[in-house]
Design brief:
heterodimer, A: 313 residues, alpha/beta, five-stranded parallel beta sheet, four-stranded parallel beta sheet, 10 helices, 34% helix, globular, disordered C terminus, B: 163 residues, alpha+beta, Alpha-Beta Plaits, SH3 type barrels, 2 domains, five-stranded antiparallel beta sheet, four-stranded antiparallel beta sheet, 9 strands, 17% helix, disordered N terminus, transferase activity (chain B), metal ion binding (chain B), Asp_carbamoylTrfase_reg (chain B)
Chain lengths: 313, 163
């Protein structure tokens, strides 16, 4: 894999994805082997939006590779509060670090930021746009549980604003997958994503309003939160909210091997009673963020050094 | 059949409604109803005293109904022609000097237009205070922001940046 930056999952080939996931599996099996691999390296964390899992897993990943992080801290305590542009911020911090991780509320922020810097930039979420590192850990989890080919996956919830959904949908087109998108009409996939999937990726996708019609055929059900704040009024939200929650009764119609995933945080989309079943993979999914991001950082930092991502243990 | 036919044959009356210019540009074969958007792209609102003639919904062999815009004393830049192509893909540009057409060509849709359209997505990074020039990929039936990837198919003229 040779990329200067990771902005969107659209830039990842099947080979790129397999390289990262294979490396993650190696690291997962023997983390001690890479404990000092990037000693002395610094990763800059620029989070302009709140984040728990993504930020902490990047921090953990870098430290488990022997490196360290510098953290911009909250927007409130940074120069952003003084009106500094993102372009200036990344140009300053790239001088301190070997790579940058950026989360920003504006779509296209990572694309723009990457045009101002030379160190590798990882997009950790840009508004409703993309979240490619989440996608890599999602794919890792799917591969572990159900394989990535001959796969029928349902993706349910807020598909309109859900950046994890957009990134996952693009990446899955590299594999032999059938994608079913389940959402209320008001939260269907953006037309830009549908355009890409149909016109550029030529993917076979289907959209549904009801989970019932596809649940029995699914190998994986990827649930996202229906965001109440997106609805124009509470009544509209209440019309659909209950239909997109799953519990034990819902899953009676599912295959015994169904894997249930969620990028977290969840609110009430998945009943706690599912947590202890064999279906639940969402905590495993969150934990996979560390080895996958370790693999990604290893490959990018090694590429930056001209090592080509080859292991040297 | 060449649409020049319009000017020299049965539609001479329409030609008379739009007088000849001495020096400048004639933008012909603009889709009917788009003439005012053409003026918007050129930044012409009459306030600078520009001399402009417009024919709207004139019969045309090629387009059935077309608009014609004649701008005195101004030759269009390539950037202006590029953006014109987005709303007037069949337009012909005639450069006129001393009442003679000295250059005539069809517009060609560029692959990318930079710095001329603003993204309608309020969540796009280009809509803030960043030092970034807008960039749109030109699709067959619209344009797409190179940053937030929003696709715009209708009302492209409304995205023209005003300085």
């Amino acid at each position: 894999m040779r990329h200067d930056h990771l902005i969107t999952s659209k830039q990842l080939s099947r080979g790129d994805i397999e390289t990262v996931l294979d490396r993650a599996a190696e690291i997962d099996a023997d983390r001690a082997a890479v404990a000092d691999r990037h000693a002395g390296k610094l990763l800059g964390l620029l989070f302009f939006e709140p984040s728990t899992r993504t930020k902490m897993s990047f921090e953990t990943a870098m430290k488990r590779l022997g490196g360290d992080v510098v953290d911009m801290g909250s927007v409130e305590s940074s120069s952003v509060k003084k009106g500094e542009t993102l372009a200036d911020t990344v140009r300053v911090i790239e001088g301190y670090t070997d790579a940058l991780v950026l989360r920003h509320p504006k779509q296209g922020a990572a694309t723009m930021a990457s045009e101002f810097i030379d160190v590798p930039l990882l997009n950790a979420g840009d508004g409703a746009g993309h979240h490619p590192t989440q996608t890599l850990l999602d794919l890792y989890t799917i591969r572990e549980n159900a394989g990535l080919d001959d796969l029928t996956i349902g993706i349910m919830g807020d598909l309109k604003y859900g950046r994890t959904v957009h990134s996952l949908a693009y990446a899955l087109t590299n594999f032999d997958t059938s994608q079913h998108f389940i959402s209320p009409e008001s939260l269907q996939l953006p037309r830009e994503v549908v355009y890409d999937l149909h016109q550029q990726q030529d993917a076979q996708i289907r959209e549904h309003e009801s989970l019932e019609e596809v649940l029995p055929s699914l190998d994986v059900l990827y649930v996202t939160r229906i965001q109440r704040e997106r609805f124009p009024d509470e009544q509209e939200y209440q019309k659909v909210a209950g239909e997109y929650q799953i519990d034990s009764e819902t899953l009676e119609a599912a295959d015994d091997d169904l894997t249930v995933m969620h990028p977290l945080p969840r609110v009430d989309e998945i009943a706690p009673e599912i947590d202890e079943t064999d279906h639940a993979a969402y905590f495993e999914q969150a934990h996979n963020g560390v080895p996958v991001r370790m693999a990604l950082l290893d490959l990018l930092l090694s590429d930056a050094e001209g090592q080509g991502g080859e292991t040297d243990e | 059949m060449s649409d020049d036919h319009d000017h020299h044959d049965g539609n001479a009356d329409h030609e008379l409604r739009v007088s000849k210019i001495q020096d400048g540009t004639v933008i012909d074969h603009v889709h009917g109803g788009q003439a005012l958007n053409v003026l918007a792209i050129l930044g012409i609102d009459g306030s600078e005293g520009e001399e402009v003639s417009i024919g709207m919904n004139v019969p045309s062999d090629r387009l059935a109904r077309k608009d014609i815009v004649k701008v005195e004393g101004r030759e269009l830049s390539q950037d202006e022609v590029d953006v014109l192509s987005l709303i007037a893909p069949d337009a012909t540009i005639n450069i006129v000097r001393e009442y003679e057409v000295i250059e005539k060509h069809r517009v060609e849709r560029p692959d990318v237009v930079e710095g001329v359209l603003s993204c309608p997505n309020r969540g796009c990074i280009t809509t803030g205070d960043e030092p970034v020039t807008s960039r749109f990929e030109v699709l067959e039936d619209g344009v797409r922001c190179a940053y937030c990837e929003t696709i715009v198919r209708d009302e492209i003229a409304s995205l023209i940046e005003t300085n």
